[in-house]
Amino acid sequence: MSGGPAEELASRLEVLAGRPVAVGGLKRLSGGASRETWAFEADGRPLILRLDPPGRPDAPAMAREAGLLMAAAAAGVPVPALVDHGDALRGTPYLIMERLAGETIPRRLLRDERFAAVRPALARELGGILARLHALRPDAVPGLPDGDPLEELAALYESFAEPRPAVELALRWLERNRPDASGGRTVVHGDFRNGNLMVDERGVRGVLDWELAHVGDPWEDLGWLCVKAWRFGSPEPVGGFGPRADLLAGYAEAGGTPPSEEELHWWEVYGTLRWTVLCRNQAERYLSGSDASVEFAVLGRRVCEQEHDLLLSLGLTEPVAVADPLKGLDGSGPAAVPGPHDRPGASSLIDAVSAYLASAEPGDERLRFHNRVAVSALRIARRELLLGDLHWVAQRERLRALGCATDADLALGIRNGRFDDRMDEVVCAVRASVVDKLVVANPRHLSQPA
């Protein structure tokens, strides 16, 4: 986005202000898998521009997000002030809001000394914020999606035509253990988690990224906040900040009806499955050829992280320390046998490119982010070259012992009850398969606390 679009921004803001507005410092931010996010200043005021990606405009969704910001602010939820929204900036729907001061990067929030004093209070504060949000009636913002969350998630999973044994185990458990009670029907944020919260040394300054909001059971937001993926290695279940008891106490103090321990656990398992399927959904953008981003390519290899977390949440596995198979390699790799090609070999070339990307420091934040993702992709490829053949042999043997030819056969057998009398064997096979995938994709994930 260069001078032309900046001029378009300035023109729109001039209409709102009734005078000329100087726009500067336009910079695209990293992250944002479904929308583009840009930071800029207008007459020195820090603002954020959100844009639908080219070719995938969704004006009603952007209008709903603007309505949600206004409704949430009126309910006492901390959100950025809405400046403007519309259907046609750079030819696509947009939203402009204030840029809040603070931090959103989870690892900084969980580790930096400057947040040490506020961290212990965040779980309770987040409970209070969610209770105020859930006081919004379902019709507070017209047009919000409203459906059965488990049915919709199962339908999205099945649309990939890629049956997965770990997912089938989770679906089976969720269907059989669905709570009788619920928290009612309210506005649900849909992505309330560490990473979508602006925090400073005083507490939560704003709740961000409302594009997945819908009508549903408010306990969904509570469970999503406690999903292991949003703890970023911390042992504390509520976004890595604190215990569930603090979250539920803050929720009750602000007028919410908290779920029981069993009900909250169901929504945590649901949330873990949801992130599993959403990772696979984002990877489809790369696999289908619609987006060549390395970010979406690597998301396809993160699905096994969530499969492992599903097994953890169901009590079917435990954290385990596994050494990175790349540690200690001298760079010659698994293909050091003389062949028709010159040296260095494929593994060494991968190592060389990884080292270059890791040492490069481009000025653009998004390029730095993609460099880190690219290094991760190359390390995955390197591990697969090293271990892929061995893992194929082990998986074929596991499947053969269960009378299956493929993972899909095993997954469908779990679904139709074929293995009900051999479930211990099935769980052992699924667990071993997920461990093998993680040893290649991200061995550190296996040792993270449950």
Automatic annotation (TrEMBL):
Ranges where the DUF6285 domain occurs: 364-444
Matching InterPro entries: ACAD10_11_N, AGP_Transferase, Aminoglycoside_PTrfase, DUF6285, Kinase-like_dom_sf
Entry's transmembrane regions: none
Pfam name, any one: APH
Keywords: Kinase, Transferase
CDD domains, per the entry: ACAD10_11_N-like (cd05154)
Molecular function terms from GO: kinase activity
Ranges of residues in domain Aminoglycoside phosphotransferase: 26-254
Coiled coil feature spans: none
PANTHER family, per database record: AMINOGLYCOSIDE PHOSPHOTRANSFERASE-RELATED-RELATED (PTHR21310), BLR2944 PROTEIN (PTHR21310:SF57)
Protein name: Predicted kinase, aminoglycoside phosphotransferase (APT) family
